């Protein structure tokens, strides 16, 4: 059933709902591509491909022995202008006269091939990050690339080899809806994981690509609320120290063939037209292909309103570096018309088009498209590679490696002889969930299923979901009934489709936090959702699709009565349920007063049932967490980080009922579980780890595998520990492990084992290095327990003195190493002086400062076992010379209201602020201070100016420059003010705004 919904309200609106992971192949959004039916797609891409000229094989671009740049130039020279413009769209049409087939950018492959049908589903990216095993992650990428080639062999037109994966955005805030898609909050760990995964995707050949990986989403993307309209301020230090280190390594290594531009605006300018895209191209000598996000090109002149016309915006994108426009599904007319318009208006030239098309063609050549099959080492991969036994085994290995033991008071591992009767309870106990970018699992081993298989006939498993069963009646005596048919039907009051009996009336209620519930009818075991005519149907296996239609809220209206509100992701359709003349439950009431009233009657308590099962068992495993389509996914950030109330109550009740309880958190993101940490005997975290989740979990619970996952993010105690989500600058906001000074629930890098590891004294091959040097650190690690196990040895550094605020500690190297019981392994780690560099705003460059650094080696960022100290003979940063022209954006500090904005639409960055906002410039040499000169802009009239103060925003006032209105925020004028003389040499200067204005550059002139 399809819901009756209006068209999406913005140009960036996503596709209609899809009923399953497989059906998602017909849709796209947010870093993905929209697909139509395979037949229509093939027609768009391959039309006329059979009409190949006899001489096509003799053309120079077909010669595999020529350099690729010569081949690209030859093909470009043979294409007409119209053919080249058509190739700027995501769906590049065929050129029959040259025997060039159609091509399209973008196939999703985040943790396995997605949306194309059954494929191996590996753990979510955040789970892969928890393995801290780059070798494993590269093998997962290799398997995914192989399966992608298998799908390509099935249908070359529909299954493209340019894969949009992985996500390299650092996970700076655990509330981000797309947390599951990233690897870690630490940019170095992200960079290593992205390099490993893309290395597997691209394959091992020096020239040919197995697939062409594209990193998402560049840059500054970490928030879903108004994501296409929000502008994030990313100061130079945050950009160079936090963003670039996550993206750059995979491009620099030659593994990632490009990046995708992000939806958001960064420093006042849409990411799709940001000059930062040019920096990406500087990271590699190999041509890179930069693609837009889905509907991103339309947004620039649409929801973002940055340009008035698509011709202007498309010209700007082309000049900024966009090579492929993902827009309007297979309909390329907007792109083609916009580019033609830009040409006619003189906004771009043919050279701009050639440059962009050349980038995408270079990738196509490396994919082997124009070469004989015998030259391409990947052309022999067939569909039999999909879901192979080897990939199933790898999926289990990956799911096992990411299991992270957070607490253990001796409850684990379970003993299959002593703990043979196990209660496995909770809403995630006997089900597995896919996420939006997941493939379709070919089989599913649930937690309960994996534990039952592990125990075999020698044990027993009792299950309970922990969900209340209710009956909904009306004040008039009617009862909501549901169809018992496999395909479901309309929910009705006093309906006859469900027949008689309790099951026809029983509804299981699952609470997912923030007041959102899902409803499952026991008449047929299907989930209730919005369908035709805005009526409620029980016809879905699980919540699914882009516009998730299966979400509701109960709102109390007094006298024990409630109304039911539809709470799906299509916000414009969030109304209340009424009862039609035919008894059908219909979502059409605008207010609670117009809605039908229900009296919920509890038929059975889910918590009571779980407690009954747990209290009589040898051990209890309570599995809680999230459903990836609800309360945190693309377009939806979390409001809180706590477990849903019903799940917290379930954990407490089961733990109190059985002293041998293990809490399993199966979630896409960190959860605040302070009660479980204080009271539960054991706590274990896993991501949604794919088809082998249950087997992997059972192997860890029963000690067949020794857990060695380590948290790739800080787990905070509550949402109160987090700053404003819109503050991207972790240096300023003080979050992630690098800057957080509070007491986390679980520290970055935390994870326990069933054995103990002892660290010996680290041996350094040198204690003093230059700014181009490196230190090798050798650390003996001894397994002092009686079980073999893996340890993740982590090396951090902490700079002791600096001109600027430095991280409390920062990860520099790590290794996951296997150590047998009683054995010692020496781990060799490296510290490069170049990695100790930070962005110096005074010189506009990365600088290794002269300083000492503590070398910290341990099992987590909070569990440092050994320390040493090195001396780095780097630069001594002199006092700031503010007499020279200084970019305002190169400040040392700023108030919360000050933000970075675009100086012009094409390039440059200014600081915008209002009355009371300020920016600071520390350690300035003021010996020759006489006057203040600045370039400012102000669109509106009224009084505004810049105060120059010493020491603080309300410190000594040296002078004030009045700023006149220029009539346009991009129209700058020079302002000046005479300043009082300052005694002394090194002082902190504060520029305080007295009204709305923009400040580009300034100087404190004394000559």
From TrEMBL:
Q: Which Pfam families match?
A: CBM_6, Fn3-like, Glyco_hydro_3, Glyco_hydro_3_C
Question: Which family would the database say this protein is a member of?
Answer: Belongs to the glycosyl hydrolase 3 family.
| Keywords, in A-Z order | Hydrolase, Signal
Protein name stated in the entry: Glycoside hydrolase family 3 C-terminal domain-containing protein
Which top-rank group of organisms is this from?
Bacteria
User: What PANTHER family does the record tag this protein with?
Assistant: BETA-D-XYLOSIDASE 5-RELATED (PTHR42721:SF3), SUGAR HYDROLASE-RELATED (PTHR42721)
Q: Name one GO molecular function term.
A: hydrolase activity
Entries under InterPro entries matching the protein:
Actin-crosslinking, BXL, CBM6, Cellulose-bd_IV, Fn3-like, Galactose-bd-like_sf, GH, Glyco_hydro_3_C
Lineage runs: Bacteria, Bacillati, Actinomycetota, Actinomycetes, Streptosporangiales
């Amino acid at each position: 059933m399809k819901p009756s919904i209006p068209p999406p309200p913005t140009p960036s609106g996503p596709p209609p709902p899809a009923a399953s992971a497989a059906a998602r192949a017909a849709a796209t959004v947010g870093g993905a591509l929209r697909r139509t039916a395979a037949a229509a797609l093939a027609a768009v891409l391959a039309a006329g491909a059979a009409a190949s000229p006899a001489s096509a094989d003799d053309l120079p671009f077909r010669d595999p022995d020529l350099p690729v740049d010569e081949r690209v130039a030859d093909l470009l020279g043979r294409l007409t202008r119209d053919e080249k413009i058509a190739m700027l769209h995501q769906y590049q049409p065929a050129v029959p006269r040259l025997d060039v087939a159609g091509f399209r950018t973008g196939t999703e492959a985040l943790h396995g091939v997605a949306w194309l049908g059954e494929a191996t589903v590996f753990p979510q990216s955040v789970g892969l990050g928890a393995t801290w095993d780059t070798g494993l992650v590269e093998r997962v990428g290799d398997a995914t690339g192989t399966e992608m080639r298998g799908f390509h062999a099935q249908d070359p037109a529909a299954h493209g080899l340019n894969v949009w994966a992985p996500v390299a955005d650092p996970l700076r805030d655990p509330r981000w809806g797309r947390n599951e898609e990233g690897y870690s909050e630490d940019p170095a760990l992200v960079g290593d994981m992205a390099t490993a995964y893309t290395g597997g995707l691209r394959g091992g050949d020096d020239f040919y690509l197995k697939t062409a990986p594209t990193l998402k989403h560049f840059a500054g993307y970490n928030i879903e609320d108004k994501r296409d309209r929000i502008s994030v301020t990313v100061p130079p230090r945050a950009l160079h120290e936090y963003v670039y280190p996550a993206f750059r390594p995979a491009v620099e290594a030659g593994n990632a063939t490009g990046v995708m531009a992000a939806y958001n605006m960064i420093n006042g300018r849409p990411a799709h037209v940001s000059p930062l895209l040019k920096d990406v191209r500087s990271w590699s000598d190999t041509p890179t292909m930069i693609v837009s996000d889905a509907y991103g090109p339309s947004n620039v002149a649409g929801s973002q309103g940055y340009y008035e016309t698509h011709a202007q915006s498309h010209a700007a994108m082309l000049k900024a570096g966009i090579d492929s426009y993902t827009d309007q599904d297979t309909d390329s007319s907007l792109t083609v018309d916009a580019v033609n318009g830009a040409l006619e208006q003189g906004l771009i030239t043919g050279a701009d088009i050639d440059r962009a098309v050349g980038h995408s063609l270079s990738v196509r050549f490396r994919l082997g498209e124009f070469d004989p099959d015998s030259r391409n080492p990947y052309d022999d991969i067939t569909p039999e590679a999909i879901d192979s036994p080897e990939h199933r085994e790898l999926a289990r290995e990956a799911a096992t490696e990411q299991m992270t033991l957070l607490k253990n008071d001796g409850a684990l591992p379970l003993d299959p002889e002593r703990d043979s009767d196990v209660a496995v309870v909770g809403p995630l106990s006997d089900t597995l969930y896919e996420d939006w970018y997941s493939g379709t699992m070919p089989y599913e081993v649930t937690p309960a299923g994996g534990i039952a298989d592990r125990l075999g006939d020698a044990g027993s498993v009792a299950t309970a979901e922990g969900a209340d069963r209710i009956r909904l009646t009306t004040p008039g005596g009617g009862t909501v009934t549901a169809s018992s048919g496999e395909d479901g039907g309309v929910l009705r009051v006093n309906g006859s489709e469900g027949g008689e009996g309790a099951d026809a009336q029983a509804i299981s209620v699952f609470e997912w936090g923030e007041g959102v519930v899902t409803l499952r009818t026991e008449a047929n075991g299907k989930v209730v959702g919005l369908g035709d005519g805005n009526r409620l149907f029980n016809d879905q296996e699980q919540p699914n699709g882009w516009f998730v239609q299966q979400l509701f809220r109960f709102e109390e209206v007094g006298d024990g009565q409630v109304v039911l509100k539809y709470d799906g992701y299509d916000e414009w359709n969030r109304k209340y349920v009424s009862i039609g003349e035919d008894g059908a439950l219909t979502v059409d009431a605008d207010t609670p007063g117009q809605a039908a009233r229900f009296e919920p009657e509890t038929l059975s308590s889910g918590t009571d049932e779980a407690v009954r099962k747990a209290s009589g068992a040898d051990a209890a495993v309570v599995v809680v967490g999230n459903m990836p389509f609800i309360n945190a996914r693309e377009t939806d950030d979390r409001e809180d980080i706590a477990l849903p109330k019903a799940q917290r109550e379930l954990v407490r009740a089961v733990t109190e009922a059985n002293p041998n309880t293990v809490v399993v958190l199966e979630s896409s993101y960190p959860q605040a579980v302070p009660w479980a940490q204080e009271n539960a005997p054991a706590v274990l975290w896993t991501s949604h780890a794919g088809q082998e989740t249950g087997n992997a979990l059972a192997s860890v619970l029963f000690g067949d595998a020794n857990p060695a996952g380590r948290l790739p993010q800080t787990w905070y105690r509550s949402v109160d520990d987090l700053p404003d989500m819109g503050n991207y600058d972790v240096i300023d906001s003080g979050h992630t492990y690098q800057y957080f000074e509070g007491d986390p629930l679980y520290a970055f890098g935390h994870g326990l084992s069933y054995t103990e590891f002892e660290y010996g004294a680290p041996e350094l091959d040198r204690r003093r290095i230059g700014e181009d040097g490196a230190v090798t650190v050798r650390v003996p690690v001894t397994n002092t327990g009686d079980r073999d196990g893996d340890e993740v040895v982590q090396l951090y550094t902490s700079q002791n003195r600096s001109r600027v605020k430095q991280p409390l500690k920062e990860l520099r190297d790590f290794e996951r190493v296997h150590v047998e019981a009683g054995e010692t392994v020496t781990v060799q780690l490296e510290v490069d002086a170049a990695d100790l560099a930070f962005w110096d705003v005074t010189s506009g460059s990365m600088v290794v400062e002269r300083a000492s650094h503590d070398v910290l080696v341990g099992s987590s960022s909070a569990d440092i076992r050994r320390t040493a100290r090195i001396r780095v003979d780097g630069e001594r940063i002199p006092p700031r010379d503010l007499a020279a022209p200084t970019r305002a954006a190169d400040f040392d500090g700023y108030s919360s209201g000050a933000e970075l904005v675009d100086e012009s639409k094409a390039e440059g960055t200014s600081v915008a602020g209002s009355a009371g906002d300020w920016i600071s410039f520390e350690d300035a040499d003021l010996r020759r201070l006489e006057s203040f000169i600045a370039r400012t802009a102000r669109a509106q009239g009224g009084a505004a100016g810049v105060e120059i103060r010493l020491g603080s925003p309300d410190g000594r006032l040296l002078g004030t420059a009045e700023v006149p209105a220029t009539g346009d925020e991009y129209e700058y004028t020079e302002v000046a003010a005479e300043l009082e003389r300052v005694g002394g040499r090194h002082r902190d200067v504060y520029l305080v705004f007295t009204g709305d204005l923009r400040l580009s550059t300034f100087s404190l002139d004394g000559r």
